[in-house]
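User: These chains co-purify. Model them together.
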Amino acid sequence: MTPVLVEAWRGDAVESEHFGSLAIVDADAGVRAAIGDIDRPVFPRSAVKALQALPLVESDAADRLKLTDDELAIACASHNGEPVHVRTAAGMLEKAGVDAGVLECGAHWPYDDGASRELAARGALPTALNNNCSGKHAGFVCLACALMGWTDSGIDLRRFVKGYVRPEHAVMREVSEALHSTTGFDLSRAPRGTDGCSIPTYGIPLRHLAHAFARFGTGIGLRAGQARAAQRLRRAVAASPYMVGGAARMDTLVMQRLGERVFCKVGAEGMYCAALPHRGLGVAIKMRDGNNARAAEVVMAAVIEALVTLDDDERDFIGAFSDVTLKNWNGIEVGALRATPALRQALLQASAG
Amino acid sequence: MTPVLVEAWRGDAVESEHFGSLAIVDADAGVRAAIGDIDRPVFPRSAVKALQALPLVESDAADRLKLTDDELAIACASHNGEPVHVRTAAGMLEKAGVDAGVLECGAHWPYDDGASRELAARGALPTALNNNCSGKHAGFVCLACALMGWTDSGIDLRRFVKGYVRPEHAVMREVSEALHSTTGFDLSRAPRGTDGCSIPTYGIPLRHLAHAFARFGTGIGLRAGQARAAQRLRRAVAASPYMVGGAARMDTLVMQRLGERVFCKVGAEGMYCAALPHRGLGVAIKMRDGNNARAAEVVMAAVIEALVTLDDDERDFIGAFSDVTLKNWNGIEVGALRATPALRQALLQASAG
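Assistant: Joint model of the two components:
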C-alpha cells in the first residue's frame, strides 16, 4: 500500500489526503529511500524532458545551431506559454530554418492565466508555440537537422521531420534511446501511451527514473558525450530557470533560488523528478491520484529540505512549498498542504543513510 | 481502507487511481450502499448549497421578492461566472434593494475560460458577481431581508447584512440550522473550516449528507415548510439547470437531460451529492485525494447509471461521464477515466437492494 505523503488541512481537520510513491537512488543504483512500490512502471510524462533533450546536445545540433542557455532550458520545459517562451521556441525553429508550421504538439491556451488573457485581449488565438511543450518540440526539430546530415535546406528538413512524434521516426528513436540508456529500463517491454503532445510515453519504474536522474546529475554511468550533454543542460537550466516554467511555477522558483544544487522537473499526473548533483542522488515521485501538481510539489519540497544543504533563508523559502498556506478568495487563511510525519521520517532516514 | 473507485488509463496501463467513499441512503436513514468510511466527517463544501438555500424559500424571502426559477437555481449554484450568471445574481441583489458591494464572497476570474477571456478582451477585471458563489451569497442577502423584517430600506439592509459570512450572524445561523435539521448531525461537535467564499463549512459524515439529500428529494422527515422549499428548489433547478453551473459543466448537462429525476451538485475537494427523488435516495461522495472534480464526476455518473431509470439514449449520455474518453491537444484519444468493477459491483447490489 502506498502511504499518505501529503495532507490537505482545512480549519481543524484533514480534508483530503494524497497517496504516493517515492524513490531516491544514487548513481550506482543504490536505493537511499523507497516509499510505496518503486518497481511498478509509471508514465513519467514531462518529468523526463531533460533526458529526452540529451540527444539534442550529444549530437552536434546544439553546437552547430549555437543554441543559447535559454534555448537549451526551454527544450527541457513545460512552460507557461508566456510571450518570452513563445519567442524563444520560435527562435530555435528559425535557427533550424523552419517555422512553427512543423510543430506536431498541438495548440492550447497558455498555462499562465495572465498570458491567456493577454492573448485574448489582443483578439488572438493560441498556436503550437504556446503549447507548454513547444520548446521540447523545437529541440526535436533541431535534433532532426543533425540526424538528416545538415543539408542546410528548410524544405528538406520539413519533409524529414514530418511525423517526428511517431515512435518509429528517427527523431523519436533517438529520444527513446536516451531514455533507455539513462534509465537502464527496457522500453520494448514497457507499457506505452501517448503523451499530451502526441509523442510516446513509456511506463518506467520510479527506481529506474531516480537512477537516471542520479546519472544525469553526476554523469556517472553515462557515456562521455551524454555526461557532457547532461552537464550542459543542467547549467543551461540553472542559468535560465524562467524558461523551464515561468511565473509562479515551482521549478522556476526553486532553481532561481538554489541554482545548480537542484535540477527538478514536474510532469503531468502527479510526477516529479529531480537530480541533486551535490548529493549524487536522483529523485522520482508519483502521486497515485495524479490529479494535479499540488501534492507532488509538497513531496519534492520535503525531499529538498531533507537532502540539500540550505541556509536558514533557503530553508524558509523551501518550507513554504512543503507546508503551504491555503488562502481563499478573500485572502483569508483557510488551511494548509503539508508533508506528513511519515514522509518526513522516511526522508530523515534517507538523509542520514 | 477506502477502495479505488476510478482509474485513469493511458495507452495500455492504469496511470492514476482515485480512492473514495460513498453513501447511498434512503429518507428513513436506511443505508443502501456504503463504500469506505461513511461515518468520518468530511467538509461538504459547495455540494450542500441547495440545503443552505432552504431558508431563503422557507422564509418569505423568495415569495416576497418574487424570485424566479433562474434566481432560485443560482442560489444553489457553483456557476461559471458567465455573463448570464452575473446578470442573474445582480438581479437578485437589485430586488433586495442593494448592489454587489454587499457581497462578502470575494472576487475571482470566471471558472469558464471563455468568460474569463471575454472579460480580459474588454479590459475588465472580475468582481464578486463572477465568483462561482455569487448566487448563493445573493440568496443570503435576500434571506436577510426576511430576517430583518422587511424595512424596505436598502441602507438598513446594508447595515444588517454586514458580516453575514460569520457563523454567529443571523443569516449564517439560519443556514447552519438548515444543515443541522436536514442532516441530523450536531454541528456543534463537527470539525469546522472556512470555505472558499468565507462562510463556515462543517465536517459532516457522508451517511448524514446522503440522508439529508434523500429528505431533500422526497420531503420525508423535513418540517412542512422545509419540504415545500426543497420541492421548489428542485423544480427551479430542473427548470434552469444552466444557472447551477454553465457551459460544459456536468451538473448542468445531467439535469438538462434528466430533469427532476436527478438533483446533483458538485463541491470542492472531490465532493458530490445528489438526490434521486424517484428512488427515494440520497447520495454523497468524497474522493479522498480531493484534487478536482474528475473522479467524483465518474462516480456520480456510475451511481446515476445504476439507480436511475434511463432509456438507451440516456444510458449512452450518462455512460460518457462514467467511462470518459481522454484526448490530447491534437484530439488524439490517449486514455480513459473509468469507474472500477468494484464500484460497479457495489452499485449493482445497491440497485437490487
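The first strand of chain B starts at residue 4 and ends at 10.
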